[in-house]
Amino acid sequence: MRSDQLSCREIFERLSEYIDGELDAKLCECLDEHLQDCEPCLRFIATLRKTVELCRESGTEVLNESLFSPEEITAFKAAYEQAARKLLAQPGGVQ
Amino acid sequence: MEAELIASLNKMKAGEAGAFERFFALVEKRILTFGLKVCGHVEDAKDIMQETLLSAFKALPNLEFKDAKALNVWLYKVAKNACLMMRRKSAYQPEQELSLDQFMPGKGSEGAPIEIADWSALPDELLLKNELKEIVRRATLSLPQQYRLVLVLRDMEQLSTKEVAEVLDISEQNVKIRLHRARLLLRQELERHLTARQSATHH
Q: A22 with B83: CB under 8 angstroms?
């Protein structure tokens, strides 16, 4: 990794902010300039982006059905109703 | 989904029939999968869901949320506290700091350019996809918890930097620092796996 005005370490430290679009404009400009002719940095950023993409993908997996039995859900409901009654009974509770 | 969550909460508070079950299903969708990503085991994730709901019930009937996002952040916060409680009860990895330098590509030999493999354009095959998902899952679980929570909330649950800061009670700057290190570790693990895979197919 080459360094221009910014040191490699400084650039390396801000790469996530850069790919998230959260880097301030001035630093972003410096980084863009550096990236114009730094092949290793470009590859590093491409693979870091891919890493984030894979994380997002594995985050979108959803549950198809509940892992709790109907009896368990009924027990949760009873716990909720009990907690709500208790709160309502307190002075200042929601009427 | 957030709007639906707050609507079902209000219906539940009003005592509408079926509203509790709807609210439960929506909370389970996010909190159980969150717990699974943070803890890795279904039983632990169910415990986190249970702790989250029981704590939430103690406050929920009296709370008003200014918007759906606020409710979402609040729920993750309760879930995060449940995760931390669980951690104290079991033998997870010790908390440790990840340093930036451990992920920085080496300088190579004197004056030589650093070689970085570009594996960003991966073939879209199912087998590889599933393999990589497994690498991501395992690498996430190997992260010290303070980094893991940030990565799961920001990159997997896709909360904003500001929301993650609120859930974890840390500064936005700190979220960014932890997130970057967590991503670097995942990147390193993916690279290691893909390089090994490549050399295996070449021999």
A: no
**Binning pLDDT at 50, 70 and 90, where does residue B106 land?**
confident
Question: Alpha-carbon distance A43 to A20, whole Å?
Answer: 17
CB contact under 8 A, A16 and B180: yes
What is the model's pTM? 0.89
**Which of B46, B119, B140, B187 is most worth mutating to test chain A (most A CB atoms within 10 A of its CB)?**
B187
Q: Are A59 and B155 in contact (CB under 8 A)?
A: yes
Distance (Å, rounded) from C-alpha B65 to C-alpha B14?
15
| Nearest-angstrom CA–CA distance, B71 and B56 | 11
Average pLDDT, chain A: 85
pLDDT tens profile B111-157: 566 778 888 888 778 888 889 999 999 999 999 999 999 999 999 99
- State whether B61 and A76 contact (CB < 8 Å): no
Contact A16 B58 (CB under 8 A): no
One DSSP character per residue, B129-189 reads HHHHHHHHHHHHHHS-HHHHHHHIIIIIS---HHHHHHHHTS-HHHHHHHHHHHHHHHHHH
Kindly list the residues from chain A whose CB atom is less than 8 angstroms away from the CB atom of residue B100: 9, 12-13
Residues in chain A: 95
Nearest to A84, CA basis, from B80, B20, B6: B20
Q: Tell me the C-alpha distance between B72 and B38, whole Å.
A: 17
Judge if ipTM > 0.85.
yes
Look up residue B39 and give its amino acid. Answer: C
Q: Calculate the dihedral angle through the C-alpha atoms of A11, A12, A15, A17, rounding to the nearest 10 degrees.
A: -70
